[in-house]
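User: Could you walk me through two proteins back to back? I'd like the raw sequence and the structure tokens for each, with a short line separating them so I can tell where one ends and the next begins.

Assistant: Of course. Protein one, sequence then structure:
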Amino acid sequence: MTNIPKYPKGPTSIRAHVLAVLLSSEDMTGFESIFAYRKASLATVIRALIRKYHWPISREDFPTNTADGRAAWATVYSIPQEEIDAAFRRGAQDWLDGVKAARKVRT
């Protein structure tokens, strides 16, 4: 039996923000996390969403170039569309609306 994914309780937490982006069928990379949020690495947040909250997040590594011309590896994280669809059938829209409202009040 697989665990049903859970939602982070704090709607303004970095975990909630990352999950909200992923449930919106968007991808996230570690570069975005480093520059935009600076509280934790994206890999740490993803690990918690997988292990503690049971979200089936996929990881894909790809080569990229840095600003100074060196080669590097980047990682992109996403949730498979069929899992997103299943989450919305289980009420993800209500959770997402709550996260968006809480973040709007916070800013």
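----
Protein two, same layout:
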Amino acid sequence: MIVAFSVSPLGVGEDVGEYVADAVRVVRESGLPNRTDAMFTSIEGEWDEVMDVVKRAVAAVEARAGRVSLVLKADIRPGVTDGLTSKVETVERYLAEG
């Protein structure tokens, strides 16, 4: 499964990068395959391990902000591994062909 999520503190002003870094640090320390871009962090693994990381990432932000927003999207596809890479490679292959 791949989960793309965004966690942001609310009520702390416009500059939230430091808080987001706390969440991303949790993801990177998890050891699960992950990528972070300007809008989301994606993480790949089994349901329980991915959701545990998301929960801990939210808790890291919540520890410093009284209110937290979480947006989450999941691609649940049993038997697929390395989806973070293979899905992008498929799109790039089609782009190169056409």
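The longest helix spans residues 47-62.

Let me know if you want the two compared in more detail.
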